Amino acid sequence: MVSVGLILLPLVVYWNIQNFGFINYDDNLYVTENDSIQSGLSIRGLVGVLTDTRTGNWHPVTMISHAVDWELFGQNAGGHHWHNLVLHAINTVLLFLLLNQMTGAIWRSAMVAALFAIHPINVESVAWVSERKNVLSTFFWFLTMLFYVWYVRKPGWKRYLPVFVCFALGLMSKPMLVTLPFVMLLMDYWPLNRTAIDTQSKTEEPLPLQSAKARLSFLILEKIPLFILTIIFSGVALYTQQMKNAVADFDFLTLNMRIANAILSYVLYLENIIWPLNLAIFYPMEDIPLQSMLLAAAVLIFITIIFCFYVRKYPYLAVGWFWYLGTLVPVIGLVQVGSQSMADRYAYVPVIGVFLALVFGATDFLKKFKAGEWMMLASLSVLATSIYFTHQQVQYWKNNYTLYAHAIKTVEENVLLYQNLGIAMISENRPEEAAIRLRKAISLNKTDPALRNSLGVALTMMGKYSEAEEEYKKALQFDPTSIRARNNLGMLYLHTGRNDEALVQFQETLRLQPRFANAHYRLAVIFKRKGLNEKASYHYQEAIRINPEYEKMDF
Question: What is the pTM of this model?
Fold first, then answer.
């Protein structure tokens, strides 16, 4: 009955995401403009998916799931959204089953799972198609831990093997799972009580173990195969991100800045969990005053000391706290990937530790003061509040305009938000409004080639061809390898009858990216105009081979 309720809870709150569209922040990279996943479930398509690192990550299991969705739903974004939601609902039930198996505390486990299901901070992971990697990798996270509990009941290599396999699949969904072996060590202390150090807290129905209490050295040795996977996938993740120049160097972001941002982010994540009223898709990196960093550090140290002081009597406080601190380490910004200071999606797994500490702690607190009758009322009030704010947060993800307009109101002026809002308006055939937003973004960053390219597109749509040409050329001046700007400049030349100049731009585009279907198609058009039918046919067939949609276009 509890499991059924936990399935229905997120389905009700997120029900209308089936009517939402794709957004232009990563959804194009993962789905709508990704020829690898659009090639279908063919051998060529699977090879492309398995070798695709254009996202800055190697996560083939996630990309295969996107390929399956494209095969089933195509450009219907609702199907892609529902896949995320179903995975989130399954994750909710798996979390409940996991906690209940380990602690025997059915209602506390249900409350932790319910908060996970409907907390506003998790909306980003569920309502954003590109965050499939988050919900899918967490599915394997929970499977790994459930198999680990099964192994703990009766240790043996046959029971250890599915732990290893599920962990590997999780890492191939998203490398953030590298912290899972460390969380297992926390679970060994509590609630599994496998360590030689006993706790004063007893689970309601202790897990029946056939293994004796173990030393820490044995528990670490037992997880060596998992630590090996952690090291391998950490290296792969760092390598692929560096290939795409996604990792910020220390000249751009010094070590002191990273440490300050990490310390403050830990506290801001807590604030967003407890008071989730100012959530946004993007939090820009800002200069952090020394006093803010010191205050945040003091808060973290104080909580750590208090929870460690009560670690024997209330072990779930320390376990939940170190779950939170530890699982955020890969994304806290010490190795900075991207330009964000933090992101709600990064908290999808870490919040479980906070919920664990709060729910188990609050229950024991109320029991101590014989206020058990207030537990149900408090739980229902918290859940009702979460449902309201989560439903409200979900609505911002309806389309690009609602998402970025809300984010601009929530955080300070930011280039990325104005840029993506401008691109969204271009896709909605609102070039005049788009140009206003893009010029605003350019005023904040005058040397961004992508901004110049997007403004060029808006100006082209407005018929201001000379201004558009100037913007494309500025984009190429700042980045000569900008494929989009070069291809768009070629299309501008083609549209204005400057075929020879267009030919040069399309050929250069293909030199930089041989699998750029649009450039092949435009070359086919140019060569046909010149009477070079053999060349025209070759490029037309290449365009169709890369993207079958071009077969529907006139030639």
Answer: 0.88
Which residue in this structure is represented by tokens 């999780």? 170
Query: Could you give the dihedral angle defined by the CA atoms of residues 399, 402, 405 and 406, in that order, rounded to the nearest 10 degrees?
Result: -120
Measured from the Cβ of residue 305, the count of other Cβ atoms closer than 10 Å reads 9
**What does DSSP say about strands 283-284 and 340-342: parallel, antiparallel, or unpaired?**
antiparallel
Averaged pLDDT for residues 443-459? 94
pLDDT confidence of 412, banded at 50, 70, 90? confident
For the chain, the straight-line distance linking the first and the last C-alpha, in angstroms and rounded, comes to 60
523 CB-side CA count, 13 A: 27
Mean local confidence (pLDDT), 219-235 = 95
User: Residue 117: CB partners within 8 Å, gap ≥ 6?
Assistant: 6, 9, 10, 13, 88, 89, 92
- Give the tokens for residue 337: 């990937």
Mean pLDDT taken over the chain: 91
List pLDDT tens digits, range 456-505: 999 999 999 999 999 999 999 999 999 999 999 999 999 999 999 999 99
Tokens of 466: 């000379």
Q: Which of 236, 415, 253, 417 is nearest to 330 (CA)?
A: 236
Q: What residue type is assigned to position 493 of the chain?
A: Y
Q: How many CA atoms lie within 13 A of 399 on its CB side?
A: 7
- Please determine, for residue 200, whether its predicted confidence score (pLDDT) is greater than 80: no
Number of continuous H segments (helices) and E segments (strands) in the chain: 27, 2
Nearest by Cα to 194 from 204, 206, 179, 178? 206
Secondary structure string (H, E, C) spanning 38-100? HCCCCHHHHHHHHHCCCCCCCCHHHHHHHHHHHHHHCCCHHHHHHHHHHHHHHHHHHHHHHHH
What domains sit in the chain, N to C, each tagged with a CATH number?
2-395 (no CATH), 415-479 (1.25.40.10), 483-555 (1.25.40.10)
Q: What percent of the chain has pLDDT over 90?
A: 75
pLDDT at 248: 63
Across residues 373-401, what is the average pLDDT?
Answer: 92
How far is Cα 268 from Cα 279, in angstroms, rounded to an integer? 11
Query: Cα–Cα distances in Å, from 304 out to 15, 50, 318, 320, 469?
Result: 39, 42, 8, 11, 58
Say which residues have a Cβ less than 8 Å from residue 113's Cβ, sequence separation at least 6: 6, 92, 93, 95, 96, 99
Asked if 391 and 13 count as a contact pair (C-beta separation under 8 A), the reply is yes
Q: Give the CA distances from residue 276 to residues 121, 147, 255, 388, 392, in Å, rounded to whole numbers and listed in that order.
A: 7, 33, 29, 11, 11
Largest separation between any pair of C-alpha atoms in the chain: 90
Among the listed residues 185, 177, 193, 186, the one whose alpha carbon sits nearest the alpha carbon of residue 218: 185
Element (DSSP H or E) covering residue 180? helix 180-189
Q: Measured between alpha carbons, how far is 389 from 385 in angstroms, rounded to an integer?
A: 6
